[in-house]
Amino acid sequence: MKDKVSEIVKKYNKDKSQLVSILQDIQAEYNYLPREALNKLSKKLDIPQSQIYSMATFFRAFSLKPRGKHIINVCLGTACHVRGGELIAESLERQLNVKRGGTTADGKFTLESVNCMGCCATGPVVKIDEEYFGHMTNDKVEPMLKKY
Amino acid sequence: MPSKLKSPKALEALQKKLGKVADAGKVSISVCNGTACRPYGSNPVVEAFKTEIEKRGVADKIDFRITGCHGFCERGPVALIQPGNIFYQKIQVDDIPEIVEKTLLNRIVIERLLFKNDSVGNIQAQVDIPFYKKQQRIILGNNVKIDPTSIEDYIAIGGYSALSKSLFELKPEQIIDMVKASGLRGRGGGGFPTGAKWESCRNAHGDIKYVIVNADEGDPGAYANEGLLSGNPHSVLEGLIIGAYAIGAHQGYIYVRNEYPLALKNITIAMQQAEKLGLLGKDILGSGFDFNVRINRGGGAFVCGESTALMASLEGKPGEPRAKYIHTVEKGLWERPSDLNNVETWANIPLIINNGPEWFSAIGSSGNTGTKIFSLTGKVNNTGLVEVPLGIKLRDIIFDIGGGIRDGKKFKAVQTGGPSGGCLPESMLDLPVNFDELTKAGSMMGSGGMIVMDEDNCMVDVARYFLTFLEEESCGKCVPCREGIKRMRQILNDICDGKGQESDIDLLKELGAHLQDSALCALGSSAPNPVLTTINYFHDEYMAHIRDKKCPAGVCKALIHFYIKDNCPGCGLCVKACPTNAITFVEKRKPVILDQSKCIKCRTCYDICKMGAVGIE
Predict the structure, then answer these.
(1) What is the largest CA-CA distance in chain B?
(2) The complex's ipTM?
(3) B459-546 in CATH: which number?
(4) Quick check: B361 and B182 in contact, CB under 8 A?
(5) Which of A54, A127, B500, B508 has the fewest CB atoms within 10 Å, i.e. the most exposed one?
(6) Burial, B438: exposed, middle or buried (Cβ in 10 Å; 0-12, 13-18, 19+)?
(7) Which CATH code of 3.40.50.11540, 3.40.630.30, 3.20.20.140, 3.90.550.10 fits the domain covering B159-361?
């Protein structure tokens, strides 16, 4: 773990102002921000852990808990909302038996909400990992999840 | 990749060479693979084109190009074929062999793939489609001509010639004067005159200055910046370099929203290509001017679209805004003079330099010059990215370009400006769309979201939606925003739950006025807008919730129930779909029975019933 963190820090020349990008790279590596990685980062960059924690909790993109194998992003942007995005989110919560931000017991899915993914014309939209699903309806939720 | 360009002549020579190749008269096809076409399956379509062209060995006969957003997202995946300006829509993988065989190799149009219009029939040319007809795509229009990951494509259509002209023929002050004369106003929402901002930053004390691209388009329901940055990243970059030269900055930043992976990828590639060609970095085009750019990813915080919060985030701090007694053009990033402009503002700069400020100010209306890109979404027939001259009427955008409301429903409201904007009713449809008129009506331009709502949308629910969003996104630094939004949202929750009181309306107005006066940044001070405009324009709907305990649109769960109509044929489709087994099958041709105590109002039965036999009241 140490080497990965060192590598990432090195890539940004130990530049403290790039903390958001560094955290993003760490999260991309581990799927979340592990405590040990943040401890190491604190030493490497010579900034207090409290400051790193404040960044990691301020921004929505970061997770301090391990996330599932597949990340589901359900869009709750305005364009998706007016076409029933909230109902899709509720349907996902029901079928996966988790609340937003939660991970299924088998570790397969993490359900996250997002406030716009830039494809509003096709709303309501759900994204699983890199794949986008547009014009979602309640009855499309189950077949979509079955693909994974 | 061509070698480094060391003079304006070298750029010109390259332009000529690339232009000749582009004009060789080959049949060309531009297939959209923008973010909004992906949910329709544009990735497999693009791959199938590649395979088909290779299989037939016709790569030298066809100019095949994968591009960014074409705008007409409703009909994706889309493609444009030249010559003939043939616009194909809803392309599927199975259509591709036929497109290559018939249209690309033998110039036969496939009627099935054309845009159909009930009144005029099939329309072949893109320009004749009603969606495109009233648009003026001076910025977005180039998206179809270029592969966003190819700097050669951008140079071939005249790219970077504005930069060359700026560096070698114009003094920084002249550029600023041109931008001032063009009348360009900030496209991020506020509408501050860009030229004046640049001038203040140039005149500010200090040797080190910064220029910043705000690509943290956080308005939920707006993706205009995404379509531009992912579809034509070099135009933004070129504008930025020109701005840096005019202001006297040698370091720039591009702050890209984390949720836009394609935009991030394409601007990163663009930056690397520009560096390789000597259009970025040390001694640009041999002019002696140095300029470097760093790309930063956002972290998913809406407030970071606010200039001071964005700058804090660039410094590696949480994105909290500060009071702006001292403007950021005096003391911004690292306490140094900093000029921050929106993606679209930057993309306008090369156009102004190339065509002159008079050309630009002739577009639009006085005081609101140029075009504006809107993301037209919600309940309109033709959703997508539209670019129109400022001053066009809302009605023209929604009904002519947007093609009216889906499923023959009735228009109710249009929401502009994102969470900082407001909802405008039918009586305001003739409002000219510009910075001043929208603000006067209680809404705002914002970064260009335009969300259309119909009779099935509840205005109280929409107001609550925005406040829920803002409550989550408030950074919590100032009390009015942190507490005020929360209290307003609680009141709206009560109204939606049927627990509202008539005095709530006054209380919402009072809290709203306090927020407008006292919040630290625009997130808080504009937060009441969605509430105040809906109270103003849709007062009756609030009263229906409060007095009659009814939600006329059938949205607020506590105030509605579902029922089965007599025309139910008992097909049993809804029985299977119901997640709580609340619906019981009786027998064929007899209506099913819905158990209200088990119903969670998820709307699944309503959506799935093809007979319209499920009612809401």
Answers:
(1) 85
(2) 0.91
(3) 1.20.1440.230
(4) yes
(5) A54
(6) buried
(7) 3.40.50.11540
Q: How far is the CA of A24 from the CAs of A73, A115, B596, in angstroms?
A: 17, 18, 47
CATH number for region B26-132: 3.40.30.10
Q: Measured between CB atoms, which of A21, A58, A90 is closest to B319?
A: A58
Under DSSP, the state recorded for B263 is H
Residue B401: DSSP 8-state: I
Ordered by where they begin, the domains of chain A are 2-58 (no CATH), 70-146 (3.40.30.10)
Q: Which residue has the tokens 């790193």?
A: A52
Q: B582 and chain A: CB distance < 8 Å anywhere? A: no
- Please tell me what DSSP assigns to residue B108: -
Which residues of chain B form CATH 3.30.70.20? 561-616
pTM flag (> 0.90): yes
**Tell me: the pLDDT tens digits for B39-60?**
899 999 999 999 999 999 999 9
- Report the CATH fold assignment for B561-616: Alpha-Beta Plaits (3.30.70)
Question: Confidence band (pLDDT; 50, 70, 90) for B23?
Answer: low
Answer yes or no: do B38 and A84 touch at CB < 8 A. no
Task: Name every residue whose Cβ is closer than 8 Å to that of residue B587 and which is 6 or more positions away in sequence.
Answer: B570
| B399 in contact with A, Cβ within 8 Å | no
Which of B366, B310, B315 lies closest to B343 in space, CA to CA? B310
Cβ contact A78–B418 (<8 Å):
yes
Q: How far is CA A42 from the centre of its chain?
A: 22
